[in-house]
Amino acid sequence: MRYIFTFFLALLVVSSVCGQQGELSGRVTDEAGAPLAGATVVLEGTSFQTTTRADGTFQLNKLPAAAYRLAVTYQGFITYQRSVNVDAASAALGDIRLQPDHVALGEVLVSTQRRTQTSVEVPLTVSTVSGALLSRLNMRQMDEMAEFVPGMQVQLQSPNNPGYVIRGITSDDGDSRSQPRISLFQDGIAISRSRASVVELFDIERVEVAKGPQGTLFGRGAQIGALHIIQNKAQNRFGAEVYGGYGAYNHRFVNGYINTPIIDGKLANRLALNFEGRDGFIGNNAGGRLNGKEVIALRNSTRLWGGSGTTADLILNYQYDNYPGTSFKSRRFAPVGGDTDPNTFADLEQGEGLYIKRHVGGATLLVDHRLNDAWRLSSLSGFRAFNADESFDADGTPAQMLWVSEIAKGTQYSQELRFTYENNSRFNGFIGAGYFYENSSQEVPMRIDERVLYPGYVAPLLGGQLSAQIGQLGQSLGLPAEQVQALSVQVQQLFQTSPVVVNGAAQPVQNLPNLQPLAMGLINQLLGGGLPPTMTWDQLIASGMLPPGTLPEELIALVTLLNGSPINGMHRESATNYGRNQAVELFADGTFDLTEQLRLTAGLRGTYETQRGGYRADAASPPSVFGLIANNGSPNLLNPVSEGTIYASKDYYSYVGRLALNYLFGRNNVYASVSRGRRPGVISILPSATTYLNPEVVWSYEAGLKGLISDGKLGYELATYYYDWSNFQTLSLQTIDGSITPQLMADDGGKAHSFGVETGLRYFVSPAFNIFGNYAFVDGKFNDTDEDGNAQEYAGNRFRLTPKHSFALGFDADIPLTARSSAYVRPSYSYKSGVYFEDNNREDLYQKGYGLANFTLGYRFSAGRASYDIGAYGKNVFDTKYIIDAGNSGDNIGYPTFIGGSRSVVGAQLRITF
């Protein structure tokens, strides 16, 4: 709080400083001379700013005598700039006529092709969300932003476990041995590792989402797209802002920045801060609340101008997440006084011991140097480190069957050098090289109360196994079928228990069943003359009376163990996976103008990479009795024991590329492309075997049309695509040696395909009022057969986390009230159809379609050199109930869990800009 107070104090001090010299006035009109109300008038490099009145006039007072650079901006018009001199007298500029700028209405500048272009020019589907739009619609999280990007979904169950979906393809695996399908970048630096990829969206210039295979532009991880976050950099002028609010569930936030020139024209600094907190939506009977939020993020950006052709930006980012736990709630058992709805209160026994704590930090150095009129050299250096610790109740009940933590750590370094050729000739492009290094790990400690795991999972498992073994033994001994059936029933009865949770309370079982009387009875029937009535099982084994081979040795050992002895309370075991990746890449991409309107773009990236996967799971001490019984004598339950850390490595040579043809007519662009994308292979290493999954390859075929019509008032985009996959990487529950449960492992899903259509519209009814919307259709499925014609496991199944239909719409109205004030209203609505949460398309792991309504509205006015914005905001205003994830780790033991989505939050907010 001390830093926040200091930040506010600095803004107040700055706002009190002013000169008291001359005045500057004028009138802003369009080409026809009609006044433009609400235009922004600013003296660049200073804090002097105002907006035009209803008649288009403006006045700046108390200006220190000096030479200034005047800038006048208005949406839909070209920015007007000129030099002005102010002295002690008043200076009247007369009429300032702004020229229409159709590009400003429907287009934005993007750097997707590593050079500055408008969004209409690039021959690919790229959706851009500006920082202004993020602010206007009150969006600070990636999942909120994704609703306005057609074909994109972000599943944000926590900052430690996000899922990114572009055109039906999901990238969310936290295993350090797996590589992402979707690349995420901050200012050109990869942040794709799942546990370190979630960042707060504050003080952002824009977010670009490039769809389809973009490996040429964004590296080997951009197999199906890339999300690029461009942050605001330091500027050579003073500016500051503070923005805060308070709402339901104790939702509070404050963010802002202060931009300060240090050496005029040479050095400037920008410090930005963001804090957001909210109580959890889900109460927890065991203590605390779940599904809440608390995050603080800081960014410092320093820019150096090294002459007219060189800039250097040093950007330091740090984010600390301190969330309460996530409500992984079971639908099998309701808490006391509650129900199994994932959106109502839970009873997860660890209470406030459930949490998410995550540190993410990074340093970025961007150097851009113009060698001459045509060539520019860019250097992008990045370092990033993260440390995340999450504690969660994986079974979702009051019984401690599976209390799990995930401790993920990693560091990465990247360096890219790029030469860009751009001189408005018939050819523009770039060549370059890059190096990437990453070293990460994921440790998963487990704490299991075996007294509740027994009735919850182990008892029916053991009952079934032993019943089958006894049945086979009876048949081999020639016992009558009726007697064999009776023995099997007796065994199953020994393992019958009460449900693990009854009336919201765990039902621990204190002792193992005693199988020895049943075994003694069976042997008594097999031996002539029977057994002495007082003989015990141990005495029988030691006596030698049992003929060799009568009972299998494994069964004798099992009967010896199952003697009614106490069950262990707490069992602890842990496993860690390791991933180390190094890659060297060479790339080139360019556009050649075949004619003035017809352009051909081609790109190629070659990669040499070396991957190393590791695994370690030590033997639990004391050992699990259930591991000894049901897991082939292992001291562990779920994690195969390794002898120390075991490693496996593999090297790959690969290439990705693209070829695109586009035709520009007016401010419109029709394009077609074919591209090859690739996801690196997976090294799945276990003590019993190491599996090398082949790299996943996709061929993409896309065509689109986008541009501006109706005098630039209507911006549109339309794209259709078809993807063809080989070696599609998925996750499936697999039986592995050394675990009593199936494990969710990387798997080769074979052949798959998807077809989709996307469209987006934005219409400016007037510069002060626009409507917008988008729609996406995705039909992504596994093929019926693989390349050899064999039936596939997931034949015909839809891709997980992929709505077939989704859309968003809204409008943005800014209504001038006086010369220096206006009111605004910005409602929006987004919808997605039903999704499966797993590729196996289980009906119990499904969310039907739903929509969310949001709004911001308020009143904005200027006073002196500051502007003020007082408003209200609402998210999910109709309190629609839905789930954002299902299945999860609890599904391994037959207890799938479900996570409820965000509830309705309505609040008030205030923004002050200097």
Structure notes:
Belongs to the TonB-dependent receptor family. Residues 121-225 form the TonB-dependent receptor plug domain. It is a multi-pass membrane protein. This is TonB-dependent receptor. By secondary structure, this protein is mainly beta. The protein folds into two domains: 2-100, Carboxypeptidase-like, regulatory domain (Immunoglobulin-like, Sandwich); 230-450 and 571-913, Maltoporin, Chain A (Beta Barrel). Helices cover 12% and strands 50% of the residues. The chain contains eleven helices and 52 strands. A hairpin with a 5-residue loop joins strand 11 (152-156) and strand 12. Helix 6 packs antiparallel against helix 7. The radius of gyration is 32 Å and the shape is elongated. The two termini are 22 Å apart. The relative contact order is 0.12. Mean pLDDT is 87; it is low at 1-20 and 102-107.
